[in-house]
Amino acid sequence: MVLLDGKALSAKIKEEVKFEVEQIVKDKKITPGLAVILVGDDAASATYVASKEKACKDAGIYSVVHKMPSSITEQELLETINMMNNNPKLDGILVQLPLPKHIDTTTVLESINPLKDVDGFHPYNVGRMVSNLDSFLSATPFGVMRMFEEHKIDLSGKNIVVIGSSDIVGKPMASLLINAKATVTVCNSRTKDLKSHTKNADIVIIAVGVPYLLKADMVKDGAVVIDVGINRLENGKLVGDADFEGLKEKCSHLTPVPGGVGPMTIAMLLKNTIKAANLREKREAK
Ligand SMILES: Nc1nc(=O)c2c([nH]1)NC[C@@H]1CN(c3ccc(C(=O)N[C@@H](CCC(=O)O)C(=O)O)cc3)C=[N+]21
């Protein structure tokens, strides 16, 4: 079994980004900038945001973390985003999800300038991605695609089952795979007999948030399994949606949790920030 080591690959990508930042600083005399908005005091969100901040710092990207209490109004959040849209030094804007219940996520995401949308969550970028046009790709599916590329895992003509149909992972993942000419099945919690789908899959990608849902008897010999799940058990242990210990005997390739897809998400966010910085002149010309 080949371990798909996201920690090692993300370190390599971060080095690429560092080099790209140096080029931009030298050639364009600008420093790429990322703004992260964190609403409320969810512990997991704070941890992710801190990782993003550190990754930016290491890569030479200017970053600001704008913390707001969960009591803010939607209007206040929209005003903050508007200010960031108009700040030329901020190439990327990321609003950490989930947002408090009284704030409408769609309204917030649609208020971000699509040319600064480094999460790729704005419907403009989602639509362009589905149509296989140049766009910001959401970091997690983008990171999974980079893992396939790195390990020369061919997607064309493959049977791929995506478990989970969320807007941030399952749906964009399926679109990228369709564009790569895979035969894609998207399953969800209503799927009857999940195993009947997964046992025919060359590749299974799971992102549902249920510990150990995907077991060895559900996949064929030599399957590739990508585990996007991150679940914190009561004993504090971090586990994915796949039963790693059982699957490692059966898979040709498997991602660990932690150290798999998670670190890739952060690395691809940095890549998207570079892309946004390269759009700065185009943005400001308007
Ligand atoms: N606007 C927005 N964009 C996001 O990209 C976004 C978000 N909101 N909300 C939450 C999810 C989750 N997410 C992760 C990023 C890194 C790890 C990561 O690095 N995980 C480490 C372990 C982290 C730990 O120890 O807790 C690993 O898997 O090895 C995980 C999860 C980004 N998200």
From TrEMBL:
NADP(+) binds at residues 164-166, 230. CDD domains: NAD_bind_m-THF_DH_Cyclohyd (cd01080). It catalyses: (6R)-5,10-methylene-5,6,7,8-tetrahydrofolate + NADP(+) = (6R)-5,10-methenyltetrahydrofolate + NADPH; (6R)-5,10-methenyltetrahydrofolate + H2O = (6R)-10-formyltetrahydrofolate + H(+). Residues 138-278 form the Tetrahydrofolate dehydrogenase/cyclohydrolase NAD(P)-binding domain. One of its GO terms (cellular component) is cytosol. It comes from the Bacteria. InterPro entries: Aminoacid_DH-like_N_sf (IPR046346), NAD(P)-bd_dom_sf (IPR036291), THF_DH/CycHdrlase (IPR000672), THF_DH/CycHdrlase_cat_dom (IPR020630), THF_DH/CycHdrlase_CS (IPR020867), THF_DH/CycHdrlase_NAD-bd_dom (IPR020631). One of its GO terms (molecular function) is methylenetetrahydrofolate dehydrogenase (NADP+) activity. GO terms for biological process: L-histidine biosynthetic process; methionine biosynthetic process; purine nucleotide biosynthetic process; tetrahydrofolate interconversion. Keywords: Amino-acid biosynthesis, Histidine biosynthesis, Hydrolase, Methionine biosynthesis, Multifunctional enzyme, NADP, One-carbon metabolism, Oxidoreductase, Purine biosynthesis. Pathway: One-carbon metabolism; tetrahydrofolate interconversion. The keyword NADP applies. Residues 4-119 form the Tetrahydrofolate dehydrogenase/cyclohydrolase catalytic domain. Catalyzes the oxidation of 5,10-methylenetetrahydrofolate to 5,10-methenyltetrahydrofolate and then the hydrolysis of 5,10-methenyltetrahydrofolate to 10-formyltetrahydrofolate. PANTHER family: C-1-TETRAHYDROFOLATE SYNTHASE, CYTOPLASMIC, C-1-TETRAHYDROFOLATE SYNTHASE, CYTOPLASMIC-RELATED. NCBIfam families: PRK10792.1 (NF008058), PRK14186.1 (NF010783), PRK14191.1 (NF010787). Homodimer. Belongs to the tetrahydrofolate dehydrogenase/cyclohydrolase family. This is Bifunctional protein FolD. It comes from Aliarcobacter vitoriensis. The gene is folD.
